[in-house]
Structures are given as C-alpha cells and as structure tokens.
Amino acid sequence: MPLHPRRIRARLTAAALLTAATLIGTGTGPAGAAPAPDPAPLAAPDIPVASVKAHLTSLQSIATANGGNRAHGRPGYKASLDYVKAKLDAAGFTTSVKQFTSGGRTGYNLVADWPGGDTNQVVMAGAHLDSVTAGPGINDNGSGSAAVLETALAVSRAQFKPTKHLRFAWWGAEELGMVGSRNYVSSLALADRSRIAGYLNFDMIGSPNPGYFVYDDDPALEKVFKNYYAGLGIPTEIETEGDGRSDHAPFKNAGIPVGGLFSGADYYKTTAQAQKWGGTAGRAFDPCYHSSCDRSTNIDTTALDRNSDAIAYAVWELAQ
Known about the structure:
Elements: H1 14-26, H2 49-65, H3 75-90, E1 94-102, E2 105-113, E3 118-128, H4 138-158, E4 164-171, H5 179-187, H6 190-194, E5 196-202, E6 213-214, H7 219-232, E7 237-238, H8 248-253, E8 258-262, H9 271-277, H10 301-319
Parallel strand pairs: 3-4, 3-5, 5-8, 6-7
Antiparallel strand pairs: 1-2, 2-4, 6-8
Helix pairs in contact: 2-3, 2-4, 4-10, 7-10
C-alpha cells in the first residue's frame, strides 16, 4: 500500500507545496534526509480458546475410540497425528511425518513448515502429542498440542509473512523419555541445528489448579514470555518442576536456545502461589497427572486461554 504524504503546513507557499508534492511523488528528497522508519511489528492475533478446546474434544474422542489413550505405538496416537496433520495440510503447511522405533513399537513425529522466511533463522514451537497408557492425556499434553496447532492455524489465517522461517512440531513418545524429539534433534546435521534460532516447548498449559511458570533456559526467550505476562499484570515464576523432563531438553543439550511455558503437574501449590494466582493451596497443580481422569474436563479454561495467547505472542514477536 502506498505511503500517505505528510501534511504540509498551511503557511508554505504554493511553490513550496509543489516542490514537496514532487519530492513525495518521486521518492527523492534533500541530501541527508532521514530514512523512513521501519514498519511497526505486527501484533499477534488473539487465539480463540473455544477453538483450542474443540481440538481437545477431538483428542478426547480419539482416545475414547481407541482404548482410552493416545499413547506411543497405540492406534490413538496415530489417529491424533492424522487429525493434526489434516488440519495443517488444509491450512497450507508443508508437513512431514518421520518414523522411529521405541520399545518395539513404531512412533511418529509430525513437523510442519510455513512457506517463506529465512531458512537460516528458524523459529520452532512444539509439543508432545502422546499420552500415557493410563488415560487420554488431555492436559498432558493435549493442551500444548492443541494450542500449538491453533497458533499454526492462526499463522495461516493471517497469511503471516515473517522474516524468519516458522516451523511447528508434534513429538511422539515423550512419555518414554523424549524419544521423538531426541530422534529429531539427533537426525539434524550440525548446520541444520545451527539454523534453529530458538525452540519453544509447551507441555501442560491448562492445568486445573494452574500456576504460571516460564522456562529460564535462555534469557532472551524467557524475557518474551515474562513481558507478555507482565502486560497482563500476572506474576510468573521460573519453571523448575519439568527441568530436563520434556522435549526442550534434547534441543538445549544440542546448544539450541529453548524457552516455554508450563502450568504445573504433580507438585503442590503453595499458599503464596494460591494468593497470587488463585486456586487451591496444598493441592497438586494437576491432580489427574498421568491418570485416567486427565480428560477434557481436566482443564482450566483461563490458563489455557492465556497460555495459548502467549504462544502466539512469542511466535509473532520472535519471527518478525
């Protein structure tokens, strides 16, 4: 869209007006004129929590139809991956599915690239898609998977044209020790690892008695999430419960900057945390962690909404 000419003060003479109009029209100006400022960064869209919850309903239905879980090597996992892939393919992403084997069972990672952007500077966001065998895994980790999916779909709806290249991923067999993400990182050539500017991980972001925890592994990525929550007036704490226990660990071990969010698992909320975040002190952040009751009812909508918006904020902030 062409630039609007600046208003010219009324006291300019007709000749000056003509000169100014000519300069604006030709794009030239006096020697030493200041360059035009860079355009303001695009604001991230609001992620509709109803859409995120609709994905969780679908993942719950998949688990219900497949023995009550979405675990590695089980039909519920592959059906979950097919669901996510179909959404991404329809939205214009380039998707790839990579197989691996763990415990004698076949696992899958799903990686989706948004066309465009500098492939020497890749911003990644990911979540593990598998559950434990005990239940459907709707908070752990349907919540992160659904929010990352809806953020990717928001990229498509906005036809976002970031400076950096955007990549999204859904990992298999995290519950067996980050098997899928380890497989992905180890398969990358050193040059490809160096092209990843940052990996953002989202594992359990809708806990029913939530906390607001931010990974502190990389100061720059940590600051992005802290700034987002500071803008909401919500205090955060450094994430320690999941250190080394989720899919950011293989990336960090390979020297790739990592960041992310977490709403708590089986640690108990303290009185001080309940005072600043609400919820119930002396109760686990997620009493259904790794249990059959980790169903679609095991979600705090407010936490899911805030964390989903935070993911989009970080993706837009880091990719421009």
